[in-house]
Amino acid sequence: MTNEETNAAATAAERGAHGAPEKAASNKGATRKKGAPKGQKRAKASKKAAKPARAKEATPRAESKGAKVLALIRRPKGATLTELTKLTGWQNHSIRGYLSGTVGKKMGLTVESTKREDGERVYSISK
Questions:
Q1: What is the mean pLDDT of residues 9-16?
Q2: How many CB atoms lie within 10 A of CB 69?
């Protein structure tokens, strides 16, 4: 390197790197972010008012698969899982979930599950 190149490099180093100048600290405080406008608040219902019974919602429509499943398991001998699968086209876990969740919990019926000697599972509604 020559003297001129060294002097040019030293002068550039004294001036600092080229780029944006440093920002001064802001005196302004942080502001809150404005969100979407809030809707009106609804009046709370009193705790004394009871919810009406779900008699209409608990029973499936007459032509639905759920009604057909209920008709089969209400028979005196009940219905096997295979029969219910053929009738509805549902998978086995879906039928068991329907019997447990909808029939057992939502409708409040007691579903009995027994295993026959041949290993077939039979579902029926106990009275």
A1: 62
A2: 23
